[in-house]
Design brief:
60s Ribosomal Protein L30, Chain: A; 2 domains; four-stranded mixed β-sheet; two-stranded antiparallel sheet; 21 helices
Amino acid sequence: MTTLLNRLVAHVDAIRFDALSASAVAAAKRALLDALGCGIAATGCEPAAIAARAVPRGEPAATVIGDALPASLERAVLVNGILVRYLDMMDVYSARDVCHPAENVPLALACVEQAQQSGRRLIEAIVAGYEAQLRLAHALSLQQMGMHHVTAGGIVAPLVIAKAWALDGAVAAQAAALGGCRQFTVHALSKGGLSMAKAIGYPWAASDAILAVRLAQEGYTGPTGFLDWLSTDGPLKGSIDADALDGRDATMMIERVSYKQFPIQFELQTPVELALELHRRIADVAHIARVEIDARPITIARTADPAKFAPKNRETADHSLPVCVAMALLDGKLTAAQFESGRWQRDDVAALVPRIAANAHAEYDERFPNGRPAAVRVTLHDGQQLYAFQGAPLGDVTRPMDDAGLMRKFLSNASDVLGDRRAQAIAECVNRIESVARVDELTRLLRAP
């Protein structure tokens, strides 16, 4: 019997570099460059520092971004995963669930480095991760079960590891079954006031997946029919789209992702872009009397609940519609440095936030079923009104960020931490990664001097 999980595993197992299109390879390199930039920019953040203290350095196997010496594979996967996720600046994909497939990149990189394999193997592992996670996002809704999207890591991460280590599909299936039936994360992870758990959800699952794969290599078996149970007798009864698990269209899923301009929750990209446009049209931001933001109902529910109007920490602030729009209107920019310096707690931001109204517009769901529409209206003290609307932010798959824009984002993230010369060297290595014999040529550039 071919289970739902076996269908997904067979599809991912068939991925080979030589069969990938030039556009898929280019998309994998874009994903790698962007994820590395996000991770480098977060170097030194508190959640990664705590994780590094909690996990022994162990036998050297893979690079931890910003460390001088290699560490254990588990440590590299966990800490690098937190770094990539922490600033909320990585890519995004939305289907039945939303996910950040770049969370598979640090796992793929560490496992390929540990195996002393090539850039081509790294591309295969990255494409495999995106293919598995995005097909799952189309096939089923974890949110329907009250689960967070990082739950998919239990299934996807073992497949990434299996591709990095060139393991047999049968081993990959058992590992994905072991990890997939265990790694369920409740959706409370990202509800209300957020915590550091936001940054560790997927990396924790990815780190645990290493054990699942090693168990499967030794012959340990898992419930490979667990997705079928969810579909027939479980909480997803009748709702899983089996054909989405192994679709055969020509375009790989990695070519369909969206990228972020700003280090904030994905639905906030459009209103912040509009706020920056309006900032340029306001002579004096002290004259702002009130602000109205129109967005889809789900956006308002996620980013404008009471906790988001009075965030207690950075993790909640970068998911707050009123706070992010206020900072953009006042400063004419929105950067990671503003969040790290506590800009969201300052008096002028705190004074503007109560004068911001967030309005749910149900018609946006009908007009922009695949977009992220928003409108921002600013009223000044003299009664003048300024208005801006956009159906999707720059970086969205429908309004893509070009290679030059993605490079600017990477250099902005990496140069302040590593210097221009090292950042340029990383970008150059990523650009030719398919010709790199061993990926430690790249990972050495990520270490501290």
